[in-house]
Amino acid sequence: MKKCLICKNNFEPFISFGMMPIANGFLPSEKFDEEYFFELQAGFCSSCKTVQLVNQPKREMMFHDNYAFFSSTSKGMANHFRLLAENTMKKYLAQNDNNFVVEIGCNDGILLKHFAKAGINHIGVEPSLNVALEANKNGVNTISEFFDENVAKKIIDKYGNADLILAANVMCHIPYIHSVMAGIKKLLKPKGVFIFEDPYLGDIVEKTSYDQIYDEHVFYFSITSVNNLLKYYDLEIIDIFHQKVHGGSMRYLVSHKGKRNISDSVIKQIRKEEEIGLNLLQTYDNLRKRIEKSRDQLIKILKDINEKGKRVVGYAATSKSTTVINYCGINKNLLEYICDTTPIKQGLFTPGAHIPVKPYSEFLNNYPDYALLFAWNHFDEIWTKEHNYNKIGKWVLYVPEVKII
Ligand code: SAH
Ligand code: TYD
Fold first, then answer.
1. pLDDT of residue 94
2. Residues 244-297 pLDDT 10s
3. pTM above 0.85?
4. 345 Cα nearest atom in ligand 2
5. 72 within 8 A of 33, measured Cβ to Cβ
6. Which of 27, 230, 329, 400 could bond 207 through an S-S bridge, CB–CB 3.0 to 4.6 Å?
7. C-alpha span between 370 and 392 (Å, rounded)
8. Ligand of minimum distance to the alpha carbon of 103
9. Ligand 2 within 6 A of 249 CB?
């Protein structure tokens, strides 16, 4: 039995992926012996309807001065955040110089740099120092801390309250969510808007995208569960926008209760979540069965390719790949290496399975017979970029189903 991080009621895990390393913990061979593992399990709280991890490593083990995820490595994401910045500036900031924008988890400044360029007062809160320094280089003011109620108070004392608070792919990372929410409640001006987005539970269930489940993602939110969280703070969802990014995300627009109109789409999506069973434990038992089937199919495909003497490499050493590789038991015999464009991952080995991570040029210079696509969420971008490979090589996909194309 575990206590729900949102409502404190007891819940049980519906799946265990076994012992897992830190998802972004790419490492050199000298560090293999000291690698940290924990049991990756996910559960569903029947009381507040939140899907969440059962255990999570300490935050400093995941977010530090050598964090491997740089948001700006994806052109698609850069474009996505540029559009978000343009839309929100127009819609939610007044035409004066007094605006103040706060971003939680600004990473390398992929989103906040647009506000900086427009001369808007802003601050990004980013605990991983190496990516925060990259944001600084992009003209973004940052403080390298973990956002919580105390940091919110410090920001209010120094800069005042915020017209706009942004948080992309970070609310779902934070187990001390109540402290974060208490901070947001205080920091947000009476008519201010808090906009956040995270991978959407409805997509994870629909696509069996179990690789979204890893150490950093402690929550898998739905509209219903977010609503249940916001109720503690007299905040409410005023609008939602489904996004294609990260395999299907939901953007939530939030304000103080009663300050803005609530869009019909919020009510509609809450009903849809009931219809598709997101609030039922049975849905997650079924999800586990599909995950097990997906694992068995993927490993069979890789073994078949291996037996035919063909080459298969991984494409993109994503955080998500750590769950797939270690849960399915993919090893160096089945996957030659993984190519990735992020310089600090190159030359290191993947967490747990210790498959080499090589520069992207390795792939370009010697195309394999098959590429296992770990960045399936960037499929369109990669498919376009790899038009030459597409003529001769094949892709192995595992979301929404295991197949070769
Ligand atoms: N917003 C970016 C980065 C998402 S990755 C994007 O969407 O691409 C999550 C980021 O949140 C990491 O950079 C991590 O260092 C940061 N983070 C983790 N806990 C945090 C906290 N308590 N406060 C602020 N940022 C946090
Ligand atoms: P993403 O799906 O955002 O990763 P995560 O699962 O960690 O959230 O993908 C980012 C990673 O994928 C990053 O290591 C860079 C790599 N990548 C490539 O190597 N080539 C590409 O064309 C793309 C889009 C990503």
1. 83
2. 999 999 999 999 999 999 999 999 999 999 999 999 999 999 999 999 999 999
3. yes
4. 14
5. no
6. 400
7. 9
8. 1
9. no
